[in-house]
């Protein structure tokens, strides 16, 4: 195991299997494992993780 390998996703694990990128450029995680976010196939169009989707929703209210 390479200690310098970057960690991704809310599970803070290395990249493996199918992964999806959050379309929020400020996302703290950036990449997510399909299994961790409940996906089985690539989403169509833009995709935001639950944290960034909630942040966007809050910003729209203000």
UniProtKB/TrEMBL annotation:
Nucleus is among the record's keywords: yes
InterPro entries (alphabetical): ING_fam, NSD_PHD-1st, Zinc_finger_PHD-type_CS, Znf_FYVE_PHD, Znf_PHD, Znf_PHD-finger, Znf_RING/FYVE/PHD
Domain of life: Eukaryota
Organism this protein belongs to: Catenaria anguillulae PL171
Limits of the PHD-type domain: 6-55
Lineage start: Eukaryota, Fungi, Fungi incertae sedis, Blastocladiomycota, Blastocladiomycetes
PROSITE patterns per record: ZF_PHD_1, ZF_PHD_2
Residues with site note (Histone H3K4me3 binding): 8, 19, 23, 31
Entry keyword Zinc-finger: yes
CC terms in the record's Gene Ontology section: nucleus
Main location: nucleus
MF annotations from Gene Ontology: zinc ion binding
SMART domains referenced in this protein's UniProt entry, alphabetically: PHD (SM00249)
GO biological process: chromatin organization
UniProt: Zn(2+) 2 binding residues: 22, 27, 49, 52
Keywords per UniProt: Chromatin regulator, Growth regulation, Metal-binding, Nucleus, Transcription, Transcription regulation, Zinc, Zinc-finger
Family, per entry: Belongs to the ING family.
SUPFAM superfamilies assigned: FYVE/PHD zinc finger (SSF57903)
Protein name from the UniProt record: PHD-type domain-containing protein
Signal peptide region: none
Residues annotated as binding Zn(2+) 1: 9, 11, 33, 36
Compartments in which it is found: Nucleus
């Amino acid at each position: 195991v390479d200690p310098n390998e970057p960690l991704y996703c809310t599970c803070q694990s290395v990249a493996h299997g199918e992964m999806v990128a959050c379309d929020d450029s400020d996302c703290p995680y950036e990449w997510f494992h399909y299994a961790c976010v409940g996906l089985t196939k690539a989403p169509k169009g833009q995709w935001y993780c639950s944290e960034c989707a909630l942040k966007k929703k809050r910003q729209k209210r203000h």
